Amino acid sequence: MAKVTAHDALTYSLKREQAQFAEEAERLATQAAYIAAAPPAAERNTVSGDITRLIQEATFLLKRAVTIEAGLEAVGLMNAEAAVTEQ
Predict the structure, then answer these.
(1) What is the pLDDT at residue 42?
(2) Where does residue 77 rank: exposed (0-12), middle (13-18), buried (19+ CB within 10 A)?
(3) What is the C-alpha to C-alpha distance for residues 32 and 80, in angstroms, rounded to an integer?
(4) What is the DSSP letter of 45?
(5) Which of 7, 43, 62, 81 has the fewest other C-beta atoms within 10 Å?
(6) What confidence tens digit (pLDDT) does each residue in 35-86 have?
(7) What is the rounded CA–CA span in Å between residue 36 and residue 62?
(8) Is the pLDDT of residue 20 over 90?
(9) Which pLDDT does position 11 carry in this prediction?
(10) Nearest to residue 38, comparing CAs of 59, 60, 61, 54?
(11) Is the dihedral of CA 9, 12, 18, 19 positive or negative?
């Protein structure tokens, strides 16, 4: 039976988080493009709501980015510790 280490689990989780981040960033870019293409007008008065949703999604994307960055730092520390241990 293969032994799964914390390093392996974190690396796998980070790959999933990065893929999710890419999908969410694309969705955010699409929302921003929609807002840019349809500015406020008499027949379109929902721009403030669209921008509010965009900010909310950006906040979630920021949270995911921070999580990924922390995970990458942890993996780097694990790699450094493993290199020192192997010496």
Answers:
(1) 79
(2) exposed
(3) 40
(4) -
(5) 43
(6) 999 888 877 778 899 999 999 999 999 999 999 999 999 999 998 888 888 7
(7) 21
(8) yes
(9) 95
(10) 54
(11) negative
Q: What is the pLDDT of residue 80?
A: 87
Amino acid at the residue 70: A
pLDDT of amino acid 28: 97
Which tokens go with 63? Answer: 């949270």
Q: Which runs of E-coded beta strand occur in 1-87?
A: none
Residue 30: closest CA among 41, 20, 22, 18: 22
Instruction: DSSP for 12-81, please give it.
Output: HHHHHHHHHHHHHHHHHHHHHHHHHHS--BTTB--HHHHHHHHHHHHHHHHHHHHHHHHHHHHHHHHHHH
Type of residue at 69: E
| 38 CB-near residues (< 8 Å, 6+ apart) | 44, 47
> What's the CA gap between 66 and 14, in Å, rounded?
11
Query: What angle (nearest 5°) sits at the alpha carbon of residue 46, between those of residues 57 and 56?
Result: 15
